[in-house]
């Protein structure tokens, strides 16, 4: 079978090219360079203001939030294709190291209780428990003051609250640190330092992404 030559194959596949690309823009990001901060609102603030800073240190792992599009199959003529009709934000999971006095577990148990107190099982208004979670990605480079790592990417997770405080398995078989897993849902997230122009606020209905300089 005859074949036509491919005239535009990718050519920059050398190791030198990869090293140059991976070393640019402050190098490859590391999954351990992050920090998470919970900013509670409403009734949740009462009695828990001092633990917020501790939770940033004790957050052993988390997830940068994702976003997806729900689609529906459409067909006019020929093959069907998908059209988006709704934005979908996936839940995120956070794991916290627990101290002996269990303030971390108490905080999240109380948060769930504020949402749905078990003396009435009536659900509270969202404004009483929805909070903001800030998650930062850092580089290996120091910030301008030289004391803290440089923040590169910033997620502001809006109207967040826990939907599950996971069971904590304990055993005589080891002496590992006790950890607490919490699943959060939220309404949406934004990137305060990377947001594109917003429609209807003096910006064009379309925008062009431009490469960031090194």
CA-CA gap between termini:
47 Å
Written as H for each helix and E for each strand, in order along the chain, the element string is HEHEEEEHEEEE
CATH topology: Pnp Oxidase, Chain A
Please report the first level of CATH classification, the CATH class: Mainly Beta
Give the CATH architecture: Roll
Strand content: 25-35%
Question: Could you tell me the radius of gyration in angstroms?
Answer: 23 Å
Contiguous runs where pLDDT drops below 50 for at least 5 residues: none
Structural class: alpha+beta
Count helical runs: 3
State the helicity in percent bands. 10-25%
Task: Write structural notes for this entry.
The protein is an alpha+beta fold and 214 residues long. The protein has a single domain, classed as Pnp Oxidase, Chain A (Roll). 14% of the residues lie in helices and 32% in strands. The protein has three helices and nine strands. Strands 1, 2, 5, 6, 7, 8 and 9 form a seven-stranded antiparallel sheet that branches. A hairpin with a 6-residue loop joins strand 3 and strand 4. The radius of gyration is 23 Å and the shape is extended. The N and C termini lie far apart (47 Å).
Task: Name the features.
14% helix; 3 helices; seven-stranded antiparallel sheet; 214 residues; alpha+beta; two-stranded antiparallel sheet; Pnp Oxidase, Chain A
